[in-house]
Amino acid sequence: MTARSDSSHSKQFQFHILGAFLATYDGEPIGGLDNGRLQSLLADLLLHQEAPLSRQQLAYALWPETSDRQARTNLRTLLARFQKALDGIPPLLEVTRQTIRFHSEALLSADLFVFESALLQAERSTDASTQLTALQNAIQNYRGDLLPDCYDEWILPFRERLRERFLSALEACSRLLEDGRDYERSIHLCQRLARRDPLCEAAYRRLMRLHALNGDRGSALRVYHQCADILQRELGVEPDDRTQSTYRQLLQQKGAEAPVHDVS
Asked: What tens digit of pLDDT does each residue of 99-109 get?
């Protein structure tokens, strides 16, 4: 997904929908966009920015429990509110009787576009340095889940897909840093992965191994106990055999440099 951009023209609309919502024009925040339905509408358009969306589809997505007629009325009211918020700003939307899309002349930028473009660059590259830079760029632009305060059903699969892609980026970036023996930064990313997905044992195993590689056996052992506590509290289970095997390797270490094998 790419943004419409023009390097010779600095006045563009910029959206942050990964994490707290923010919309700006020419670097200045656009007021009047604190309505959750309006933010949901804009997110839907950004996620489908390559093609117009039908008004009927948008109305149903935003008000699934109302009648078609009421939903269409609500959408007209929402669009009027949006136009009022953009008073004095160039048009952003092209609205017809049937469809809504971003205006063809509007310059758009969004954290979502940067995130997905960076992931695509990492996937297409075979150079580790390029992959690392692209993944770091993607991670930097993922400041939170897609509109976390929006509870509309339509957004849930998009939010989950983007979240899974972010977690995969954390893991891939951590692996590249480990390959380059940059254990400190690799540990930091793996800690973020464990916080974001606290029931993922693979993240704890990786973190245990990274601490061991960094010469910090004590921290590696503490990670195991943290993992065991969380699994017992949340699921009522013990760590699986692979995690326990990693823990036993740590207990059997004779020195700080003893290897801990990857059993992920």
From this structure: 999 998 889 99
Determine the distance from the C-alpha atom of residue 238 to the mean position of all C-alpha atoms in its chain, rounded to a whole number.
30
Q: Is residue 262 within 8 Å of residue 210, measured between CB atoms?
A: no
User: Residue 249 CB: number of other CB atoms within 10 A?
Assistant: 18
Amino acid at 229: D
Q: Are strands 13-16 and 108-110 parallel, antiparallel or unpaired?
A: parallel
pLDDT digits (tens, 9 = 90+) for 193-221: 999 999 999 999 999 999 999 999 999 99
**Residues 6 or more apart from 209 whose CB is under 8 A from it?**
220, 246, 260, 261, 262
Q: Are 189 and 173 in contact (CB under 8 A)?
A: yes
Strand 53-54: give its sheet, edge to edge: 53-54, 99-102, 93-95
Helix (H) or strand (E) holding 37: helix 36-47
- 229 CB burial (10 A radius; 0-12, 13-18, 19+): exposed
Residue 13's SS3 state is strand
Instruction: Name 25's bridge partners.
Output: 13, 28
Handedness of CA 100, 101, 103, 107 (dihedral sign): positive
- List CB contacts of 262: < 8 A, sequence separation 6 or more: 205, 206, 209
**pTM beyond 0.90:** no
Instruction: State the Cα angle at 43 between 110 and 76, rounded to 5°.
Output: 130
